[in-house]
Amino acid sequence: MIPENLQQIQSQLPAHCSLLAVSKTKPITAIEVAYDCGQRDFGENKVQELFEKATQLRDKPEIRWHFIGSLQSNKVNKLLETPHLAAIHSIDRLSLLEKVLKKPSSIGLFLQINTSGEVEKSGFTEADHIHKAISLIKAQKVYRLQGLMTMGSIRAQDFEQAARASFKQLQELKSELDAAYGLDLELSMGMSQDFLLALEYGSHWVRIGSQIFGKRS
Ligand SMILES: *Cc1c(COP(=O)(O)O)cnc(C)c1O
């Protein structure tokens, strides 16, 4: 049940960590149940689905939407028109960032970092691209660089060790960038299967779907 699941997860989160309820493929009614339990941040990974849900729920005054999926450049404008959009967690390449920055908005941006080295995962891998991304956001001034996002390994044999390596790498990158640019970046990492590990590495946003809403859609 959604209320019990939410409560159970919340009870495991430290004060500095927020729960992003990943509602992709789930019906509006499930989102409303979670909202009525006090959940405010919701994540979606498809622009069209997000736009439709956010439009239907636009009268919920405190709802905040987070985009977490892979984003095609031609969908950026539609995404930015979404009611109550709070952040994009999946800025994974410079060309996408440039497209987003052309349409000023005060939402938060997270740079997605490929920490697992898996080629099928998207995300920045090169340090100079990350530095370039930060300087583009700083120069544009309206957007906020809110943090860094990563996903743990999907095919590792030793799942726990691979997840730890990814989360540790993101935590170290945060320290480096915070020091270099005077930032205090937030970390978006940890899903249903690995969020307890992500908490050990200082996650500020755990993105949890199936453990809240169940596996089936
Ligand atoms: C689906 C998804 C999640 C949530 O996954 P669960 O295993 O259902 O908790 C988190 N992050 C991203 C990017 C996702 O696409």
Residues in helices, as a percent range? 40-55%
Uncertain residue ranges: none
Question: What overall geometry do the principal axes of the alpha carbons give?
Answer: globular
- Please give the largest β-sheet: 8 strands, parallel
Polypeptide structure, described:
β2, α3 (47-56) and β3 (64-67) form a beta-alpha-beta unit. The protein has an eight-stranded parallel beta sheet with strand order 7-6-5-4-3-2-1-8. It has 217 residues and is of the alpha/beta class. The mean pLDDT is 95. α5 (94-101) packs parallel to α6. The chain has helices spanning 2-10, 28-36, 47-56, 76-80, 94-101, 127-140, 159-181, 195-200, 210-213, and strands spanning 18-22, 41-44, 64-67, 85-91, 108-112, 144-149, 186-188, 205-208. The chain binds pyridoxal-5'-phosphate.
Q: Briefly, what is this?
A:
The protein is an alpha/beta fold and 217 residues long.
Write the layout of secondary structure elements.
Layout: H1 2-10, E1 18-22, H2 28-36, E2 41-44, H3 47-56, E3 64-67, H4 76-80, E4 85-91, H5 94-101, E5 108-112, H6 127-140, E6 144-149, H7 159-181, E7 186-188, H8 195-200, E8 205-208, H9 210-213
Parallel strand pairs: 1-2, 1-8, 2-3, 3-4, 4-5, 5-6, 6-7
Helix pairs in contact: 5-6
Pyridoxal-5'-phosphate is lined by residues 22, 24, 45, 68-69, 151, 191-193, 207-211.
Essential attributes:
217 residues, alpha/beta, 8-stranded parallel beta sheet, 9 helices, 8 strands, globular, binds pyridoxal-5'-phosphate
